[in-house]
Amino acid sequence: MPTSLPATDTAVATAAPSPWRMCVAPMLDWTDRHCRYFHRQLSHHARLYTEMVTTGALLHGDVARHLRFSDCEHPIALQLGGSEPADLARCARLAQEWGYDEVNLNCGCPSERVQRGAFGACLMREPLLVADCIKAMTDATHLPVTVKHRIGLDADEDYGFVRDFVGQIAQAGCQVFIVHARNAWLQGLSPKENRDIPPLRYAVAARLKQDFAHLTIVVNGGLRTTAEVDAQLQQVDGAMIGREAYHNPWWLAGWDSHFFGSPDPATARSREAVEAQMVAYMEAEQQQHGTSWYSIARHLLGLRSGLPGARKWRQTWSDHRLKHLPARAVQERLHALHHAHSTD
Questions:
Q1: 6, 120, 251, 316: most buried by Cβ count inside 10 Å?
Q2: Final residue belonging to a domain, choices 246, 264, 282
Q3: End residue of a domain, out of 264, 288, 305
Q4: Which residues are annotated as a binding site?
Q5: 264-288, pLDDT tens digit by residue?
Q6: CB–CB of 174/133 below 8 Å?
Q7: DSSP code of residue 25
Q8: Cis peptide leading into residue 198 (ω within 30°)
Q9: DUS-like FMN-binding domain location, by residue (predicted)?
Q10: Would you list which residues are annotated within the binding site for FMN?
Q11: For residue 279, what are the contacts with CB-CB under 8 A and spacing of at least 6?
């Protein structure tokens, strides 16, 4: 229950932070349920996103494998890839049935494989189709239906292109736009190059917020420090962090206090506490689902980045020769190595 401010002339109530104030981006092959569980030990409030899941994978594949998650992962969003309104509507209903907090449509991925499936960034050329998709999804679920998109395609940097896209999609019922502040080059650049080569233009996201003040605008792309995020939050409602959150996860340990004004998680008081929680999680996953600790530990490798002994710590948790050992035995081996070095 929030505490009421004293009824004085000088008391000014501040608005609660947007639920999208800090988000961890959907990253293919990275933000699986184990990665999200790990990130949740560092921040209770950050909004977590699944990897992009295609409608075909959900409608014709193993639903549980794609949609299972731990209760602690809330708030959590399912990102979908697709362009058929009826299929997206069915998948939006699945997201609701499985307990997700949001369903997000990918209109930003530039990979050739995604283009062959006629979705991702190439959908920005078909705003009427995207509007039909959003309408079908919002009719199918009470969850927020959001869109992640780029600010332009190829060499076209005309602001009117993205402004009109956002305007048409908003009329279909979308109220939250996650704006990757780079153009997507559909030809000539790889997905990796598309994350680095097109210049960042944060001013476009800020201008969208000015033109659509009633919408929630979240900026994504290239943000690596708290100061950089703070600067963007002066202009827009939220920030989505991708690679930096994955490679430098300890940054998340201060997000709740800095960005949300809430206590940071107990596990975020030390890297050792996070590691201990993840070892317990590995043991539970092994017992309940037969999951190897090795497939979980890969997400932790940046936890001690910049600290003495970080290299040896990474090498041990990523050593395939230790896969036969229980996770706790690997942890104990690391503690023994640390003790030996500290007493030399």
A1: 120
A2: 264
A3: 264
A4: 26-28, 79, 148, 180, 220-222, 242-243
A5: 998 888 999 999 999 999 999 999 9
A6: no
A7: P
A8: no
A9: 24-325
A10: 26-28, 79, 148, 180, 220-222, 242-243
A11: 293, 327, 328, 331
